[in-house]
Amino acid sequence: MGAAVFFGCAGIAFGPALALVLLTVAAEPLRVIVLVAGAFFWLVSLLLASLIWFVSVHLSDREDAKLQYGLLVFGAAVSVLLQEAFRFAYFKLLKKADEGLATISEDGRSPISLRQMAYVSGLSFGIISGVFSVINILADSIGPGIVGIHGDSPYYFITSAFLTMALVLLHTFWGVIFFDACEKRRYWCLGLVVASHLLTSGLVSL
Amino acid sequence: MITFMNNSDSEEEPCNERTSLMSAESPPVPSYQDGLQASQAGEVQAHRKRRTGSSRSPNNIADGDMSDSGVPVRESALENEEEELTLKYGAKHVIMLFVPVTLCMIVVVATIKSVRFYTEKNGQLIYTPFSEDTPSVGQRLLNSVLNTIIMISVIVVMTVFLVLLYKYRCYKFIHGWLILSSLMLLFLFTYIYLGEVLKTYNVAMDYPTLFLIIWNFGAVGMICIHWKGPLQLQQAYLIMISALMALVFIKYLPEWSAWVILGAISIYDLMAVLCPKGPLRMLVETAQERNEPIFPALIYSSAMMWTVGMAKPDTAAGGPSQQTWDAAEDGRENHRSPSHADSQMLETRSPAPTRPITSFEELEEEERGVKLGLGDFIFYSVLVGKAAATASGDWNTTLACFVAILIGLCLTLLLLAVFKKALPALPISITFGLVFYFSTDNLVRPFMDTLASHQLYI
């Protein structure tokens, strides 16, 4: 615990993402806007998913631990599906924006290509999802304490950090594949992205 | 895209919060003023036509933002050019505002999370006389609504007063007011802030050193804000005083009142700027008629700022641009440098190194940047700071509010590009912020906490 753990885990979790942002996104205003808007879309999807989970928890028996865990997994699955749905919505929005930018610009080409937007949107989903998953854990790691004193794994922080890093990168890849699949109308690719997201979520829950 | 300002005394005054509130009021109406824009856009067109196409294209290529291949010098495409202008600088301007707003919020959140002074309840302002320590929920709600009504009426009265002063050309009074406000903010509040920070980190400091630091900080601040100074220093000072003001609000506004006040202020902002008889709209229109900027000292400007005693465009531009001249000489980069003056200079400089004078003028006319009232900074920071202070130690809520506010700002700027008139910057951002705060705090937090405890990732 303490600063070493905090900086180490933060570096592990967000190192690649930060590097990607600094090198590719930070210089271009349009990409930064796409990044922030992507984060917004992910947040809205999370909001809806939590609403569904919250309602289901309140309607169910609070004492039953197994049921609660089941509801949690259900909530996670719903969240994954909603995230993908909002990724699709974001794709539609970006496509329209792309066309708008192309018409307004001088030479008929939009200043940012759909591929770049796919990458930035994937990155944005990844970053905000990673941040939401791990920031409270990181904040706790600064303070005093011993990890796993009640018998849980003492490697909680570092595994969380690695999982977050994986999630960030996965979201980036999913973003690119998803947008490409939507563009080329390869629906099996879409299904692949959704399935792999569900699989990832499910695997982690084991 | 030229945005405007609304005058606002976001500083403190001997009367304390009263004026600051009021001022905090005016600026919220970040008027992105466009009356001037039309005339200026016209001038730009004229200038662009005079320039040759060749000098324009490298310009555009250097501008990494929008890769237009070149501006055709078309007489008939005035409107397209105008549209292209607004869009060409649209994304850049959004970022020009994202950065200071983010910095202000970071300062406020960092202070709230570390210095406990600003989260302790030590009384309330006289503008919110009703206490919230009541036993019943209904009573508490009623008290907060009453507090809000009082606060908003104070704000309305002060705004109307300011508009009247401006209308009847009592400039000296207004300037004196502003100077007193910023004096109090820069010296007294900074002193308190520094004291609390030193207490938190248990650092000892003797009075002479303290005096020296505060004196220098305050004096340079007064000069930068009210007179001339390097653009970035001016921006930094404006961000700092907005953060200080926001911290005062966060400390002294009771819980529920703060949220209701935020909501009410955005509604007021909406009405004051858009209604025909709204005080802020009248202020903006009066300024337009007289063709003068409204107290730039209280508006955050992302490009070269005209000072209060507005110097002639050339000399004013001369100041900040001199320092960027050498930067431009050294290297041309396509990156957006932190100083917007820099990037602007780089753009126009590289293609036309032999015509500095023209560049100056072109620069002034093209890139005035975006202006946002300080009150907007203050209320955005109040929202995010309150989220950081009261959301049960949760960082997710703070981040969600932060993203919501940025998106609101983005949308507002988009609307600005579409409608081309003064627009309030508070409503959309604050609405998103409030929605996200309450929903994240109550719905998302338990969900994410439960997920984290089982180490589930979604």
Automatic annotation (TrEMBL), chain A:
Signal peptide residue numbers: none
Assembly notes: Component of the gamma-secretase complex.
Family statement: Belongs to the APH-1 family.
GO biological process: Notch signaling pathway; protein processing
UniProt keyword list: Membrane, Notch signaling pathway, Transmembrane, Transmembrane helix
Function: Potential subunit of the gamma-secretase complex, an endoprotease complex that catalyzes the intramembrane cleavage of integral proteins such as Notch receptors.
Species for this entry: Eudyptes filholi
Residues passing through the membrane, by range: 6-25, 32-55, 67-86, 117-135, 155-179
Compartments where located: Membrane
Record's keyword annotation contains Nucleotidyltransferase: no
Coiled-coil regions, chain positions: none
Pfam families: Aph-1 (PF06105)
GO cellular component: gamma-secretase complex
Principal place of residence: membrane
InterPro entries: Aph-1 (IPR009294)
Protein's UniProt keywords contain Transmembrane helix: yes
Lipid bilayer topology: Multi-pass membrane protein
Record protein name field: Gamma-secretase subunit APH-1
Automatic annotation (TrEMBL), chain B:
Record-level GO cellular component terms: endoplasmic reticulum membrane; gamma-secretase complex; Golgi membrane
A GO MF term: aspartic endopeptidase activity, intramembrane cleaving
Coiled-coil intervals: none
Superkingdom as given in the UniProt entry: Eukaryota
Keywords: Endoplasmic reticulum, Golgi apparatus, Hydrolase, Membrane, Notch signaling pathway, Protease, Transmembrane, Transmembrane helix
Keyword NAD: no
InterPro entries xrefs: Peptidase_A22A, Preselin/SPP, Presenilin_C
GO biological process: one example: Notch signaling pathway
Membrane-traversing stretches: 94-112, 145-166, 173-195, 207-227, 234-250, 256-275, 399-419, 425-444
Residue segments, region Disordered: 1-77, 315-357
Coarse class of the protein's main subcellular location: endoplasmic reticulum
Subunit relationships: Homodimer.
UniProt note: domains: The PAL motif is required for normal active site conformation.
UniProt protein name: Presenilin
Protein source organism: Eudyptes sclateri (Erect-crested penguin)
Protein encoded by which gene: PSEN2
